[in-house]
Design goal:
By secondary structure, this protein is an all-alpha fold. It has one domain (about 1-94). It has four helices and no strands. The protein has helices spanning about 1-10, 15-35, 45-65, 65-94. The protein is flat and about 60 Å long. The model has no long low-confidence stretch (mean pLDDT about 95). The structure holds magnesium ion (MG). Magnesium ion binds near residues 24, 49 and 52.
């Protein structure tokens, strides 16, 4: 899998691939807005654009060689979020 990202970078270049990250994120944003603001039944599009964004985020991580750092930061961040949820639920429970 990693190989595909390295190949894509080598074939199409860093800048075009990073612009593609932005393009895919904007497509997902549009679908989320249609779903919420216009109550559009677009789950299929949301699935497709979510997959596109995940692929391009993997491309971005491969481009900057930051897979491990992102994974570590995510783990820390999720622990913080979990703690905030625990605190919130405790507060609401009282
Ligand atoms: Mg797309």
């Amino acid at each position: 899998m990693t190989n595909i990202y390295k190949r894509a970078l080598k074939t199409w270049g860093k800048e075009p691939q990073m612009l593609q990250v932005i393009e895919e994120m904007s497509e997902l944003i549009k679908e989320i807005l249609k779903n919420i603001n216009r109550k559009k039944d677009n789950l299929a599009e949301i699935i497709e654009e979510t997959a596109d964004v995940e692929i391009m985020l993997n491309q971005l991580k491969s481009c900057y060689d930051i897979e491990k750092q992102v994974e570590d930061y995510k783990a820390q961040k999720l622990l913080k979020i979990e703690k905030r949820l625990d605190d919130w639920e405790k507060l609401k429970g009282k």
